[in-house]
């Protein structure tokens, strides 16, 4: 499966997991959030996947973008593991997940292997 890339992130599918890695110093506003979601959905071609999302490259996300990603960002996802850089982003994201209450299993990790193990239970054969 090919790697796809836009201005904000790179994404690919490996072992039936969609890997989504934000580029360094990425700033996300509502326009960017819409592009990110649209590109991911086009890439998935109506197939649902567990998603490994590495957000360590994100520099800033405005509130409208966060709200859009919370609503639309979970389309065609079975579960999401979010890889963060400790400690500040972890605390902020924990709070955000409690407030936004995503409708799919979502968990925050600082360890890549643990994040992938979490997603393995959501892989379809």
UniProtKB/TrEMBL annotation:
Domain DUF7793 span(s) in chain numbering: 11-122
Source organism per UniProt: Sinomicrobium weinanense
Source organism superkingdom: Bacteria
Record's protein name: DUF7793 domain-containing protein
InterPro entries referenced in this protein's UniProt entry, alphabetically: DUF7793
